[in-house]
Fold these 4 entries.
Entry 1:
Amino acid sequence: MICGDGRMVNLGNEWDELLADEFRQPYYLNLREFLKREYYIRTIYPDMYEIFEALKLASYSQIKVVILGQDPYHGPGQAHGLAFSVKPGVPIPRSLVNIFKELQDDLGCYTPNNGCLIPWAKQGVLLLNASLTVRAGQAGSHRGKGWEQFTDSVIQRLNERPEPMVFMLWGNPAKAKERLLTNRRHLVLTAAHPSPLSAFRGFFGCRHFSQANAFLKAQGMEEVDWQIPNI
């Protein structure tokens, strides 16, 4: 797989084989050229070496839950390749504050002192955005450049998997993926995006986290520990 600078990228898990052909498709080669220019002349998030971090941390067969957002955070130091997550020491963005609020209301989780969601990824939660890159300060600036087709392919491959999983689609770009989820073994949950502009229009009170765990338990699978530890 090819990153923006032309290096071959090894994700180190099953995604390497599953997505090998995708990275040879004409649309992706065009996207790659676009990204090479963008990273050269502009400030783009996340760092090019973290674009596929979500896929690196959540191998195909281990995924239990998919949380799908819109595009990465566009503020300095925020995005690091996992939807809604920020690295330790970075102030918690307002969308993630709202996610933690819903978790508290839904499952009684306390609000942690950091916004690093890697503990979720390590439990099989794929934290994917519909677009994987964005210009600094310009939300949605890399939409329509090819990422949607790429993430469609990721979702289609997950949809084909016989083992059940939960899909949480937050916001309209994420909800647009619902058409791809035809496998009735899976649980599909939709809600408004947790951003301050829309959280009160259907994200708060959605109780996706408890619904996900109830579904996993019913399937004989281990529930996700949604509590992010303090550091």
Entry 2:
Amino acid sequence: MATDYYAILGVQRDASQDEIKKAFRRLARELHPDVNPDPKTQERFKEINSAYEVLSDPQKKQVYDLGGDPGGAGGAGFGAGGFGNFSDIMDAFFGTASQRGPRSRTRRGQDAMIRLDIDLEEAAFGTTKEIQVDTATVCSGCSGEGAAPGTSAQTCDMCRGRGEVSQVTRSFLGQVMTSRPCPQCQGFGTVVPTPCPECAGDGRVRSRRSLTVKIPAGVDNGTRIQLAGEGEVGPGGGPPGDLYVEIHENPHGVFQRRGDDLHCTVTIPMTAAALGTQCPLETLDGVEEIDIRPGTQSGQSIPLHGRGVTHLRGGGRGDLIVHVEVMTPSKLEPEQEELLRRLAKLRGEERPLGQFQPGQQGLFSRLKDAFNGR
């Protein structure tokens, strides 16, 4: 085989069509006559063009791989049939051309988001809120057209409504036509000689409006409610985007929310913890009596099932967890002290030994034990 087309393009014999095309484009950018006018380079450019025309054609490539003459399958080079890969050469220098045309003045508006503060009760059971929204709305003066009343947009006299202008340049391949957006109409194909004085030709103005938002039960901090089509109106009176309402739950004076459960702490004197008592608690469902059983210890918790926040997805509600804190008096009257001493004597607790349990060691104690091999 007199000519090794694979070697000319610098690819392996098992190279794919994509690899062959990439190799050709890379060499074409380096060797085309406009970049390097050396006659030897021009001959080299003709070689890579001939090699690519054969290897990019499945039939010619098959004949060539079998040792035949691919020229019999249609010829090669810059002859009459030598520009079958003209588009690939153009792609190598200018990239793939895109279809252009006049742009529409009407475009979809952007999404908007506002923050809504609600109370715990509203989040737990759901509610309906009236909100004020400042967004772009369709201009009433021009109905979104952008032109002053009594006027209208006119066809651009520079691009004649095409939205683009063309320019012809000369290259080694001859005349090449390129297109770009029209600088006069910015690619719209039309111009607005007299813009609307209310919106300055944008077709929209900012205004405040009221909306009713339904807040479902169980929302939490950061929950976003989507209101389709309630966002910003697009340029040229285009369709509006969406409005997102982000929920922010105000702190509660008694309850702390953890998921759908509510937590609170009740502080009782040691006598009530020892004897037992009942404490009224204002829950989300009304006042309920919390039963403190005799002998309740500090740190114990009392669950009230189904008294928490409604589950956002699915039925049911979370729980209300009441944490008990026993308060020990710091000062005693003489009579109170005498009564406690008598109680301690009756219970044999005048000099209690106490009950010790393993606790966490400090840093220096752990280091000491480590050095001592404990």
Entry 3:
Amino acid sequence: MGRYVGAIDQGTTSTRFMVFDHAGKVVAVEQKEHEQIYPKPGWVEHDPLEIMNRVHEVVPMALAKAGIDHHDLTAVGITNQRETTVLWDRVSGKPVHNALVWQDTRTDVICNMLMADGGQDRFRGKTGLPIATYFSGPKIKWLLDNVEGIKAKAEAGDVLFGNIDTWLIWNLTGGPDGGVHVTDVSNASRTMLMDLRTLDWDPEILAILGIPRAMLPSIRASSEVYGEIHELALRGIPVAGDLGDQQAALFGQTCFSVGEAKNTYGTGNFLLLNTGHHAVQSSSGLLTTLGYKIGDQPAVYCLEGSIAITGALVQWLRDNLGIIKSAPEIEALARSVDDNGGCYFVPAFSGLFAPYWKSDARGVIAGLTRYVTKGHLARAALEATAWQTKEVVDAMNADSGVALTALKVDGGMVGNELLMQFQSDVLGVPVVRPTVAETTSLGAAYAAGLATGFWAEVEDLRANWGEDKRWTPVMDADRREHDYKLWKKAVTRTFDWVE
């Protein structure tokens, strides 16, 4: 057995390969961005072949950094941006179209059509999800309806569907030459096609959407051996873990007990609460989703609050407005003022996700006066992340009946001290950052290591978790309520913008 476990973390903006040791410490990391393609307003695409190339580039570079070769790895786990939809030709291995990214809203017409008969919660009883442009099912339908000549091939199983996890595993394990066509329960639960109880594709929803079952991968546990890698840099190593990125972060944060929660601050924000072997249906606009499944153990469910735009708002200030040159600069700019100057920024760029689920909302900056500077805008952008998180936490407390006592945080934005303090202030509970902030990659590594005996049980993983820093609330309750009311008022201004 090797001394390390590897994780391929294929995210919305970049792909990384990380190597971890038995203590869950980072040994090496290599990361590369890929192109964001915007053919029309509201359309977001990725090139699946470019993403595969990024994997080929970062793996050998990270191994070289660690001074090891693939024989030192016991297994590799995969974690991925969820819902992003790839259709490809089984014989040639070539995608039939660019991937439709989770943020893409071109399926709004399909979603409206589906909602006309039974409303937004038509499939919620089975899938735990509202009908929304976010999920893969309508994206598959759009591709089948709009790419010429693939429908018959899909029915014959010659055009395959996968989220990015499935696309990577198929390619790594041989591609057209015997590649394994699988996904795990966590990714399958984001398609709007899987029944939460049976953990299988739902024939009725497939029929309504006109999606042939033959094109879908088989649904497996999140921690089991799927196959061996054929690629040179990792030849012979088993792929043994597969988790959607947010579930992987839950796993990496070792939230294995009912009531444990984590919030990931990435392109968007995702708050997941472990509800155990019980799928809790939300009445407050949250998603009911699969957390993970280890081997033949029973599946673990979650409540999830998904926020579309958080870190992406900082990128927008950098790339579209040029207010900052690099993302970390936002903290200093926001600190140049004492408060938001009365300005609130609601980034509903691709509609509002939890708890509203309004795909016709668009972004708004409210409360502008001549007094407002770019410092206030920067501060309002950071505060938007914290306020959106508070709305999700309120919904979670209502649904679960358990009040959150502390929040474990991870992801790219948790290095921002101003944001973390403000987050604690608006929630009124401590915010805790772990020693390893890259919990998504760590979760994928944990899943792969558990499946191959590198770690014996989840208790070994808990022992690895360590606290790096904790923020406690200092804001008084009256101020919090006053500002929150203004935030909610600003949110209502985004509604029904798209006609």
Entry 4:
Amino acid sequence: MAASTRIPVPVCEVTLGAQRWTGQLLTVEIALASAPLVGVATVRLPPAAAVSAVPSDSATVTIDGADVMRGTVTAVRRGLHAITVTVLDAAGALARSRPATTYEKTDAGTVIRALAGDAGVPTGDVADGVGLAWYAADPSRTALEHVARLAAWSGATAYADAGGSLVATVIGATEPQTALRYGREVLSHTQVARSSEVEAFTVAGEAGAGDGGVPEALRPTSDFFAGNRPAGPDGVHRWGFAPALRTTTAAATAGAAARRRYVAGRDTARLTAWLQPSLRPGSVIQIADLPDPPLPDPPGGGPYWLDRVTHRISARGAVTTARLVRGGPALDPLAAAAGAAAGLLTGM
């Protein structure tokens, strides 16, 4: 008797407030993304379903017994053909918060944890990041926008994990955590190579001190580069100004992080696979057995890290789509940090 090749049907459960739904689910789509974007789950149920959930109720989406998203109901739409419930992940609470707080003698990770705590969001692994003599979390930005900004300066990526906690870590996309195979899990793979005109990124602060704890860190300077001005700004040398970065080390780290993001974003890919519920922003993957003609290397089959992932389950099937960003040894964050230390002012 021939072995069955039937694709396993995933077991999806959605808890909305006090109700748990399984068999009546029409479609479930979970779109996960890193800050400043928010993770969104869209759940469709039959119009006759006795849905009692209201905005602000807690919600959980699990697939095959494992949490994929924990969040809060933000909208319930009742139509003639379906009831649609929208759920935002933990980043949604940060997106609704507009802080007005100043922090002194701290670091990016401490500020991120404080912003999350004020919004009622638990935190997981949060990197300390760049040192800050001060940081003004003003209400012109949401707490999530502040988190994304602080994480970017530190070379980190912030996102909500499956348990509903905020994570902000440096993704070391050098070794894959998951290997997918074309023809087994992977249905399609499209690689996109973009032009790369920008040669260097420079971030300037306002003080240029060697240490954030000295009085000079609070005094504006007229020459942040101390007479050693790097090339630019121009078409191939991109500059940025971040007054909150008071030391040359912090500014160099931010410049190195900007360059790493730019270079990684020159080579991206789009992936469609049979449902892979464990994949989420921050996952590092490798794709094996890509068909001939082979894709150019790098990056070819990876490694890649994921910054956007969507899981969709319906009567038509269950698939995962993702946007992949180039990883590999050339984009090792530790190497970027060493480059920042070697060239404090340019971030090269």
